[in-house]
Structures are given as C-alpha cells and as structure tokens.
Design a protein that fits this description.
This protein is α+β, with helices and mostly antiparallel strands. The protein is built from 9 helices and 4 strands; from the N terminus they run ααααααβαβαββα.
C-alpha cells in the first residue's frame, strides 16, 4: 500500500506540473506562453515568401564571392521549393554569371602564370608525358649521384629481431640497395643487443637508419618494409638534411628544386 500511495502521489504531481490549472486562461494572443504545455496550439509558422528576380550583373560584380555563393544557395532553394519556370530560370541565370566569372579567373590565371614562370608549377612539376619522363630522369640522376658520393662515409643500420615477421622483406630490399649502390648495411638484432634500443631511441622492427661513420649523426629512413625506390629517396633526403643542405620544412626537395616554386623557403614576390 505504501508503494501504491507513493505512485499515486507521484502521478498526481506530474499531472499537476505538466498541465497547470487555469493554463487555458494564460494562452492569450501576443503572450510568450504559447503551445501545448499552456493549453493551446502554437501559432503557425510564417509562410516563407518566394524570392524576386536576382540582382543585375553590375550589382553582382561588386559583391564578394562568398555573398554570391550564398545567393546561389538561396535561389537554388527558392527554385526547388516553388518549382516554377521563373524561379528555375533565375537560379540558372545566377549559375551562368558564376560560371562566366570562373572562366574569366581561369583565363587570367593562364596569362599570369605565363608571364611569371616563378609561380608556375609546370616549370618544376610537369604533368604531361614528356615532362614527366624528363622529371623522372632528373630525379634518378640526382639521387644516384648523391648516394654514390656518400657511400664512403655513410652506411645503413638495419634493426631487426628473429621474431619480426616483416624483417625478411626489408632485409631483401636492403640487399638490393647494397648491391646497386655499394653501401655497407649493418644488421643489429635488438634481442641480442638491447642497448641499441637506447642508442637509437626505438625498439620497433624493422627500422632502417642512415649513419655517418665516426660521428653521432644518424636518422631513420624507413619504418617497416619499404620498396627500393622509397629507400633510395629517403636516404637521399636524410643525407641532405643531416649535412645541413635542407631544413625539415624542405625535406622532400631535390637539389635542383631549391629556390624554385617547390621550395617553401623561397622568397616570393609579396611585399617586394
């Protein structure tokens, strides 16, 4: 009985709170107390009015691009909602204006990049077949010549474990690297030489590092299994970074790319 009494009391409290006595009297026109909890239906939402014709071209050209984008969105919604020939026509008239402005910008871009080759990516990163073939040859010559120049004072260190499932794959890639470039590759089993974990700051295997003999200069060049081209490029980049020829922000640059449009440290024309 006690449990039932508490339930009745609780139910009465909820009913008394959700539907207060005399709520209908407080549901008056202009009052903020509108809606179900005050005993009346909420007022209907205002009917959205259709948009009129879009602004003329002279006005549109003076608008910020982001405002034109907002206008396009509004007229698209207007056309979808009211679905008349007129509203659809207005939307596509705005689309036509935006498209013509985009074409104008693209044409201006072509002229500017032809007049200012220091801004043109095509000068350093061509995307047509003849240019891509030339870029690939230039990259290969740059990497191979640097690896040949440094093989007498640099070497690769390969961190491995007998239980490492990926070490054999990386070991095979490093054999190819050694045979192709004449570099020394030293393998260290971290289980047998655990002090090397502290020396090189990692216990992950396989890890490949480049070191300069007789110095404390070293840097990781591969984590996990990497292809031969990736190892070659990583060693090339690490050598240049360790020798102070590049900064971390220029890590991907080839020697012939420094000072070009691809160099983030190159001074541009702004403020000059």
């Amino acid at each position: 009985m006690k449990s039932r009494g508490w339930k009745v009391f609780l139910l009465a409290g909820i009913v008394g709170w959700t539907i207060p006595a005399g709520s209908a009297e407080r549901c008056t026109e202009g009052s903020e107390k509108q809606g179900y909890w005050w005993g009346c239906d909420p007022p209907p939402p205002d009917e959205e009015q259709p948009l009129g014709p879009p602004p003329g071209e002279e006005v549109l050209r003076k608008m910020f691009p982001k405002n034109v984008e907002e206008l396009l969105h509004d007229y698209r919604e207007n056309a979808l909602r009211h679905a008349t020939e007129e509203t659809v026509l207005w939307y596509y008239q705005l689309q036509d204006f935006a498209r013509r402005r985009a074409v104008e910008f693209a044409n201006l871009t072509q002229v500017v990049l032809l007049k200012h080759p220091e801004l043109n990516m095509q000068t350093q990163y061509p995307v047509n077949p003849p240019g891509m073939a030339a870029r690939s040859r230039q990259r290969s010559v740059s990497i191979e010549s640097r690896l040949a120049a440094e093989r007498g004072r640099a070497a690769l260190v390969f961190l491995s474990r007998a239980t490492c499932p990926y070490c054999e794959g990386q070991r095979a890639m490093l054999r190819h690297f050694r045979d192709r470039h004449g570099w020394q590759v030293l393998e260290i089993d971290l289980d047998r030489q655990p002090d090397m974990v502290a020396r090189f700051g990692t216990d992950f295997t396989p890890t490949t590092l480049v070191i300069f003999r007789g110095t404390d200069q070293w840097m990781p060049v591969a984590v996990g299994v990497e292809s031969l081209p990736r190892i070659e490029e990583s060693v090339y980049r690490a050598l240049r970074l360790l020798l102070g020829e590049t900064s971390p922000g220029q890590f991907s640059l080839q020697e012939y790319q420094q000072g070009t449009v691809l160099d983030p440290k190159r001074s541009g024309g702004l403020g000059q």
